Amino acid sequence: MEKVMETTNRKNQNTLDQNKSPDARALTMSVKDGIAVIAFDDPDKKVNTLNSKLIPLIGEFLKEIESSPSIQGAVILSRKKGCFIAGADIEELRSAKNAKEVESLSRKGQEVFTRIENSKKPVVAAISGACLGGGLELALACHYRIASDIPSTVLGAPEVMLGLLPGARGTQRLPRLLGLEKALSMMLTGSPVKASKALRMGLVDYVSYAEDLEALAIQAAQRLAKKNLVRRQKKKKGLSGLLESSSFGQKFILKKAKESVEAKTRGLYPAPLVLLKVIEYGLVNSFEQGLQKEAEEFGKLSQTPEARGLISLYFAQTELKKNRFGKPAQPVKTIGVLGAGLMGAGIASVSIQKGMTARIKDISLNALGKGKKQIWKELDSKVQRKSLTAFQRDQTLSHLCLQTDLHRFETCDLIVEAVFEEMELKHRVLKEVEPALRDDAVFASNTSALPISEIAKYSNRKDRILGMHYFSPVPKMPLLEIIVTDETSKEATALAVDTGLRQGKTVIVVKDGPGFYTTRILGPYMDEAALLIREGYGIRELDDAMQLFGYPVGPIKLIDEVGIDVAFHVGDSLGKAFGKRMSAQEPTLLQEFIKNKWLGRKSGKGFYLYQDKKGALAALTKKSSRTVNLEALELVEKFKVKPQKMAADLSDTQKRVAYRMVNEAIFCLQEGILSTPTDGDAGAVFGLGFPPFTGGPFRYVDTKGVKKVADEMKRFAEIFGERFAPCPLLVDMANGGKTFY
Q1: Which residues contact 203 (CB under 8 A, 6 or more apart)?
Q2: Which of 306, 378, 481, 561 is catalytic?
Q3: Are 509 and 603 in a shared domain?
Q4: For the chain, how big is the Rg over CA atoms in Å?
Q5: 713 closest CA partner among 702, 699, 728
Q6: pTM of the prediction?
Q7: Residues 597 and 731 in one domain
Q8: Is residue 556 part of a domain?
Q9: Is position 481 annotated as part of the catalytic site?
Q10: Residues 436, 417: contact at Cβ < 8 Å?
């Protein structure tokens, strides 16, 4: 390949030498063979972001490019490995004082990006790594886009996941580039696409090897300047193309999209509906008028409680990507997994997909075969979705070792026990495996409620034992709850956290105690739901009510998913530890379910009926999993209790269930189970589905008002009794006018 000779743009370099601000250091410009190369590389951050100081700097560079006869065009790229531009500076958005201020930020971005698009000299985007949000909008303004083929190269518009919409021309540019349906899919889901798919969609023009990216981008800019390179225009085909070519068809697509959004969000998330409104406004009127509307609505959305909650959650996730226990001396290369069941296979799967070797031990070849089949199915589904090649699938699977003994377990840096939730069994497994481990190896129990200190009771290496509570299904659920005892070493904790982060999990670390954090706050939530059912509240009606509050799954459906036997044992053990605050009812109803072998989804019957998709039941209804078990209703009627006097108010019903979870979360903070509200918010949202738009239980209390929540809890306590007595920490904060954040 022709060597690209670099010359320095001395005028620009002198300017940068005079101004050593962080923003000037984050964006530099040089000239190579008549092409200006604008490079992002923020030295103070792991990723590049756009802010109100960098965007005008792009405009200054563009002005210089346009005025220089020796510069034929420009290339925009990143020197930061694995990241083009990750989006706008969210901190700047969060700290803005009002909607007008945010609207102004949007307009400045629109102006500079419009200037790029209107430039008479070609501008090429050379994309390697994450190209998201404002980064994608910058790339869209360029005349040609080349993406590298590395796995971290993804393009997306995730603003809706922060309660916002694309605010720098994205709402108007994407539909016109890709077509309405594809653009809506990107913006409404927030899901990024890899380079290969972006090429098929027409989002990028070429995909190259990473090492050739800059040279090819420079050549593309030179060819565009000479008019001997033209962008390929994707033709809209079929019914979709016909629909999108007429205003009637566009309205039809938008109408269907609105119906889908309303059904999925239940009106709890304003951003998707506003996004549709802005897109339609621009299509009906003009691109320029659409931009005006985009900036205006972007500003308004930034001030909504939903956006503030989701942005808070974003910062919580960002904070939890750091290992506050330090870097382990030796990261895990080989992980041992005891048990090839659903959880064990899931843990092994997420490990081998991140380059670790996983050794699974189980008592039989049959069990190991089932575990391998589950892992194969997970990997093969990625091949079907084209996110993995068949070669990559097979290569990943080669990191899996299956065995019925402890051969070579001395090579394991971390061992995760994933057997049944029985203390005696866990003691037996630990006693068997410990002699085969290295002195520095860490032993973790995957348990949802059994005390880690009790599991470690008979061990002579308690400093290397902790809990790693994964959520099912492991490959899909984002949370990992690590549980430490007073004897767990910092080194062991650091290793476990590092492993979880490498597995792609959001990791929280909590202290040992009955139910830890997530199971403990789930207990009273499900207890109150079961009590409401016994008071005569409809099963489906209660689930609908809590979904309207913002939970993705209703509490009764959740009991079925968890398993009625598991819910009973958890409630029973937590009730013994915390009394009426945790378990306000006699567990007779659930005991009868267990007696009848109605254990929820896993047995095909619980509060709802579950049947194979090919079964007769599925033929009668599209929502077979929402078919209430009539026998269960008869049993509920048998154990019916008289409800306490209370106004029939949907809001109060929702709060009865949700507030018990919130109150217990505050108890966990008060007792030191949680070290920060951030951990509590992330754990509740990513582990249990606490309404994401609230930001989590602690952010929810701050938003609603600490005093208001405390007063409502007191009101409930007067009606329903001690289980609603507000946590002393909540009362103290209310009296002192304090907030969690």
Answers
A1: 145, 155, 177, 178, 193
A2: 481
A3: no
A4: 28
A5: 728
A6: 0.90
A7: yes
A8: yes
A9: yes
A10: no
